[in-house]
């Protein structure tokens, strides 16, 4: 049987928890990464018992230097090939940039950006050799505009969106797709962590639940969408904002995509 494997970071809570369930439900073996070993063990046992999938879990702080390298060596040693890479782990923080503790921001940049890029590079190399694979990078609607009081968080998510779109373009016709999932903010989770007040507009809207975000992200990844924004109004608003922020139609190099087939 053609077994497939998904690697999910930030696998035990929030959106990542539902990615883990969706993948297991689809009979995909799992490599789950998170900080808390007890949470990982509990989830791994549950998914194995319910769906009979093979689950490897790695308790690791992915904001540490070279964490992706350590994790990658561990999964290769155990003979895993990753078919689906879900770069989900991310943290946020809020407040005036000049007042926020640098260590917190360093960790945020390391996790949201450095870990995501390094893990993608390591795993993409193997995917390219086989000519197939799916990458899902969790960005945010925050990626579309600068975020006063959450300056670094917004900037990390803008990076994830830009990076994902660029490599999706490079990988055109390679059999590999890259999707940037851009969820709305929730009224809990990161927002709570960042102590950010939910604005009136958001309060009036029905915000999607974690499981809805994960289902939407999963289907967008399978369809090979490059940018996945949930909801017609959201897409309209964000794309309009993008249109007006760009005075030129992109960088001139964008006309010369790198092809893997050459
Ligand atoms: N929440 C929102 O409003 C929102 C909106 C748009 C996009 N997003 C993005 O969606 C993704 C998931 O967010 P979420 O709200 O589902 O987050 P969450 O509920 O806070 O869960 C994040 C998961 O990542 C793990 N994690 C945190 N730091 C880690 C590290 N250094 N190394 C390994 N694992 C780590 C957490 O483990 P512990 O529980 O042990 O800390 C937790 O299991 C993030 O990339 C986030 O930026 C979130």
TrEMBL record:
<protein>
    <submittedName>
        <fullName>Short-chain dehydrogenase</fullName>
    </submittedName>
</protein>
<keyword id="KW-0560">Oxidoreductase</keyword>
<comment type="similarity">
    <text>Belongs to the short-chain dehydrogenases/reductases (SDR) family.</text>
</comment>
<dbReference type="InterPro" id="IPR002347">
    <property type="entry name" value="SDR_fam"/>
</dbReference>
<dbReference type="Pfam" id="PF00106">
    <property type="entry name" value="adh_short"/>
</dbReference>
<dbReference type="InterPro" id="IPR036291">
    <property type="entry name" value="NAD(P)-bd_dom_sf"/>
</dbReference>
<dbReference type="GO" id="GO:0016491">
    <property type="term" value="F:oxidoreductase activity"/>
</dbReference>
């Amino acid at each position: 049987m053609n077994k497939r494997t998904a690697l999910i970071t930030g696998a035990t809570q929030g959106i990542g928890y539902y990615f883990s369930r969706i993948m297991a439900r689809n009979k995909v073996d799992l490599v789950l990464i998170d900080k808390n070993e007890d949470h990982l063990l509990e989830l791994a046992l549950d998914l194995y018992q319910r769906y009979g999938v093979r689950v490897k879990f790695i308790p690791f702080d992915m904001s540490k230097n070279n964490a992706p390298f350590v994790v990658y060596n561990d999964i290769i040693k155990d003979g895993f090939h990753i078919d689906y890479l879900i770069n989900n782990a991310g943290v946020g923080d809020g407040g005036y940039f000049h007042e926020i503790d640098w260590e917190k921001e360093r960790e945020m940049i390391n996790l949201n950006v450095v870990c995501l890029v390094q893990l993608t590079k390591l795993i993409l190399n193997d995917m390219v050799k086989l000519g197939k694979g799916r990458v899902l990078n969790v960005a945010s609607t925050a990626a579309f505009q600068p975020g006063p009081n959450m300056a670094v968080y917004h900037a990390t998510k803008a990076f994830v969106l830009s990076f994902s779109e660029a490599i999706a373009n490079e990988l055109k016709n390679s059999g590999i797709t890259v999707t940037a999932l851009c969820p709305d903010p929730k009224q809990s989770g990161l927002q709570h962590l960042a102590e950010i007040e939910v604005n009136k507009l958001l309060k009036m809207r029905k915000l999607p639940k974690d499981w809805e975000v994960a289902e939407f992200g999963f289907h967008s990844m399978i369809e090979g969408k490059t940018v996945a924004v949930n909801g017609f109004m959201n897409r309209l608003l964000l794309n309009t904002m993008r249109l007006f922020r760009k005075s030129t139609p992109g960088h001139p190099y964008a006309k010369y995509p790198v092809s893997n087939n050459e």
